[in-house]
């Protein structure tokens, strides 16, 4: 879980994010061979996009898929195709 704290340094307000050690360890395991898939979850239709380990978007289009078994199967096929085409 991430928290936020503020301090004053030289009259300026400085915001610091605190991450848990477990989260830091997960982030440190991301390598150049990883694809990061972000999903905007909604009630009926989800949208996903893929980036590399540096946050650079790797596809020209996002993927929209329904909140159903078929939709998540579509997402799985999309990710598998990306792995083959990008690697």
UniProtKB/TrEMBL annotation:
Superkingdom to which the source organism belongs: Bacteria
UniProt protein name: Transposase
Source species: Paenibacillus taihuensis
């Amino acid at each position: 879980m991430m928290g936020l704290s503020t301090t004053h340094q030289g009259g300026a307000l400085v915001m610091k994010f605190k991450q848990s050690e477990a989260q830091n360890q997960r982030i440190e395991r991301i390598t150049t061979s990883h694809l990061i898939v972000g999903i905007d979850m909604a009630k009926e239709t989800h949208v996903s996009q893929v980036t590399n380990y540096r946050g650079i978007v790797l596809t020209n289009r996002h993927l929209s898929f329904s909140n159903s078994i078929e939709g998540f199967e579509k997402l799985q096929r999309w990710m598998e195709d990306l792995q083959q085409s990008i690697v």
